[in-house]
Please model this.
Amino acid sequence: MKYIVVLGDGMADLPLPEFQNKTPLEYACTPTMDRLSRKADMGMVRTIPVGMQPGSDTANLAVMGYDPFKYYSGRSPLEALSMGIAMEPGDVALRCNLVTLTEEDEDFENLRILDHSSGEIDSRDSAILLEAVKQELETQAYHFYPGISYRHCLIWKEGRVAELTPPHDILGKRIGDYLPKEEVLRAMMLRSYRILKDHPLNRERRAKGLAPANCCWFWGAGTKPSLTSFEEKTGKKGMVISAVDLLKGIAVGAGMGTVDVPGATGGLHTNYEGKAAAAIEGLFEKGYDFVYIHVEGPDEMGHQGDAAKKVQAIEYLDTRLIDPLLKELDGRGERYRLLILPDHPTPISVRTHTGDKVPFLLYDSCNGYDDYDSNENLGPGAGERLPQTRGYSEKTAEATGIVVEEGHLLIERLFA
Model:
């Protein structure tokens, strides 16, 4: 028996007028997931415990079977694990985003965040800019480490876990109300803006019509985590496939395998087929029992407020990852169980995470599935739907009446 989780980060949403009051998941053309839904168990799950901030860190811990109330110590320490950063007791890790701020005001506090990802800046440009910050700001107490795209890490030796605001929560807002109360962190952010605003690479990016990465934004502070081994906890040898350090960090902390898929970016145009192939290799060539495939694209499009591209990300997940994955699994002839879900909603209307329950689909290959009738569910154009009562969406999952209130228990249904 093989076990697979396919997680579409931020895939859940709210109904949108431009989609005839359907959600992006309901509106998207997803023949593979809809086909599975006819023979699958579906329901809703609360991945963000009541009282905790909605984020991919707590949500993915829960989906992997770890109670966030017990295991969560902050987001950035998990990313630090993935990056191979050795944390000492007393060290505090902070996420260091390269963000795009407005530049029309001389008063730093009056600037606004335009983009939490600097236009999904590539890792090469991002590393060059972070190096400029590092050369001026790094000391014995503060160490900068480059990550993927806009996502970097700051280690504060003998630091304090400060209360910090995620940049994607305040898009378009004046930053003065959300800057750190810690004077040192606040001053470093201001200095990073002065370093980066007129950096030659940012001048080049503006000339090309690209967003400048003109400030470091600190958030997600936490201390070194301690996770129980996934194999010890579940009896399953597992691996994680993701382009983002957060998920890789959870894997490292839980003693799970990871793999770097060429072309996996954490954006809309990631290597979906490569992730499916890596999962098959992990399950059948490397001897893993469990594979967790994480796709960041729907979440990034939710943060950008781009409904059409969020639909596209969901459709790519269905046709370019899940479909080839199932064809390979079915061709191998070994029984498998597949869990598909988001970690949290990232509604287009708010452009950030919410803690609402999300829909899950749990399929067992012994159930088989019907051939997909393209004339039954699809309208005349790509991505359009006729009214339907079947398929995988928030509405159909909620209609089952099945609710898992404690998200970390959902994995028990997968392994049952």
User: Anything to note?
Assistant: Residues 82-222 form one domain.
